[in-house]
Amino acid sequence: MATFGIDLGTTYSCISRVDDSGDVVIIANEEGEDTTPSVVYFESPFQVRVGTEAKNAARTDPDHVVALIKRDMGKKNVKLDFHGTPYTPESVSALILKKLVKSAGQASGEKVGGVVITVPAYFGVPERHATRVAGEIAGLDVINVVEEPVAAAMYYGLLTPGANRTILVYDLGGGTFDTTVIKLVDGDVTVVCTDGSHSLGGADWDEAIATYLFDYFVAEEPDAGADDSEELLQDLMLVAETLKKALTQRQTAEQTIRFQGRSVRAQLTRTAFEEMTADLLKQTMDITDRTLRTAREKGVDHVDEVLLVGGSTHMPIVATRLAERLGVKPRRKEPDLAVAKGAALFAVHETARLRLGESTGRRKGTLSTAGLAAELGVPAETVELMSASKVTTVVPRGFGVKVLTDAGPDPERPDGEEALLLVVDHLLHANDPLPTDRITRQFGTAVDNQREIKIEIWEQAGDVESRWLSDNNQIGEGLIKRLPLLKKGSPVDVTFQMTQGGALLVEAKELHTGQTLLLELQIGEMTPRQVAEARDAVNRLT
C-alpha cells in the first residue's frame, strides 16, 4: 500500500509518490495535468467539479465557485452554503484532496495508504489541525503534516546527497509566503527559523494585473457601464494569471478585454508590472530580512544557497532582488513540484519512523526494513535513507495564556490605585525547536474568594510576538471548577509543551488542592460528529 505526498496549495495542488525505482514522481490528474487548480465548483446539490473545470466555471457561475480556500483554514465561523448544504473550509479542501487521491489511485493501480499533507511554515495550531481534518473528511489516513519549506529542503537534499549546507527557502506560493532558514547536514534537516504571511501570495500579483486591466478598460470606454461590474473583474482575474506567466517569458504582453459588446486591447510591460507590484515584493523582502536577523540571533550568520519554491518565484524580479540583497544567486529546481515531491519523501520518512523505530531504523520483533519497503512499493535503500534522516522543525508562533497584570499607578484615579490590564504571557516562542521541553510558569488567582480558574490559550497573530490581546488570537480554553474559597494570588502552575507534530499540550494545576486541567490544543472547531457528517456530505457528491 503506497504512501503519497500532497501539496495542498492555495491556487494549485498536486500529489506525488516514491516509485519502485526510488524516483519521486508527480502523478498527473485525470486531465493529464501535473497540478490541479485548488478550485471547487458546486454545480448542483449532488455534483461537484474540482480543478480546471471549476476554474472555468467561475466565468459563468461565480456564486457557486470557491477558490483560495486555504486562506480560510483554521478560521472560526467561516461558513459556506451551496444548494442548501453547509460547507466548511475543511470540507471544501477535502474535495480537492479526494480529486488528487482518486487520480493517484487510478494512475498507480494501488490503494492509497497514508498521506502527508503540506502546510505553510507559518501555519499555527488551528490551521494545521484544520488541514488534518480536511484529510480525515476525505477519508484519508493522514500520517502527518509537514511544512512546505521542509518538504522542499528534503527533496533538494536528495538531489545533493551528503551536502552540508545552510539554505534559505524563499517560498512564494499562490496564496501564502514563507521564508525559512534550514541546515542540511548528512541528510538531516534542521529548521533554524521561519517567518511569513498566510495572506500574501501570487494571487495578489494577479489581482494587481486584474485591477490594472479593469481600470484601463474603464478609462478607454467610460460609458460602457463597467465601472461597477463584478462580472468583468471576475473575468479579468481569470486571465491575469496567464498574463503574469507571459511576462515571465517576454517583456511585453497584450490582453483583449471584452464587455457588453465593447472590445479594448491592453498592453502591459514587465517593467510596469514590476512597478505596480513593487510593494508586494518589498513585503516578501522585509520578511526575508526579518528571518535572516532571527537566524543571526541563533548563530547562523550566512546562507550557502537560496532555494526558490512556489510557482510565483518564476517572476524574474524575484531572483534578481534576492541576488542583489543577499549576494547569492538563487537556485530554482522544480519550484511548482518540489514541495509535493518532498512530501512524498517525508511520507516514507514518517512511515519508517513510526513502523520501524526512530533511532535505529528497526526494532526487534517489528517489521523489517525490507518488509516495509515491499509493503510501500519502494526500494529498501530508500526506506533506509529516509529512516536514518532526522527532521527538526520549530514552533511556528508564540503561544501563551491570558493573565491580569498590574499596569502601574493610574493617574486618572485620585486614590492612586494601580490599573489592571489583560495581556498574553507567552510560554512558547516562535522558532523554539520542536518538540519543546515542558515550560512551566507560576501565576496567581486574580481576586479573593475565587472558586473557578479559567485558562485561556492564545496564539500570536501578528508578525512579531506581542502581549496585547489584539495582536493574538484565542485558540482554546478550559476551567478548573469547584475549588474552595481561594485568596488572591493563590498559586497556579501552567505548563506548555508542543509535540513534534505541532500539537500543543497544556496543563494547569491549582497547587493548594492539586486539581489539574489537561488540554490538547489540536481540537479545532469541528467535533468528531461534525467531521463524520462532513465526510458523509462530501461522499454524496460526485
Textual characterization of the structure:
The protein has helices spanning about 50-55, 90-110, 125-135, 150-160, 200-220, 230-250, 270-275, 280-295, 315-325, 340-355, 370-375, 380-390, 530-540, and strands spanning about 1-5, 10-20, 25, 35, 40-45, 45-50, 65, 80, 85, 110-120, 140-145, 165-170, 175-185, 190-195, 250-260, 260-270, 305-310, 330, 390, 400-410, 420-430, 440-445, 455-460, 470-480, 490-500, 505-510, 515-520. With about 550 residues, the protein is α+β, with helices and mostly antiparallel strands. It folds into 3 domains: about 1-200 and about 285-390, ATPase, nucleotide binding domain (Nucleotidyltransferase, domain 5), CATH 3.30.420.40; about 200-280, Alpha-Beta Complex (Actin, Chain A, domain 4), CATH 3.90.640.10; about 400-510, Substrate Binding Domain Of DNAk, Chain A, domain 1 (Sandwich). Strands 1, 2, 3, 4, 10 and 11 form a 6-stranded mixed sheet that branches. Strands 18-17-12-13-14-19 form a 6-stranded mixed sheet. It has a 4-stranded antiparallel sheet with strand order 21-20-23-24, with no helix packed on it. A hairpin with a 2-residue loop joins strand 8 (about 80) and strand 9. Helix 2 packs across helix 3 (about 125-135), helix 4 packs across helix 10 and helix 11 crosses helix 12. The longest helix has 20 residues, at about 90-110.
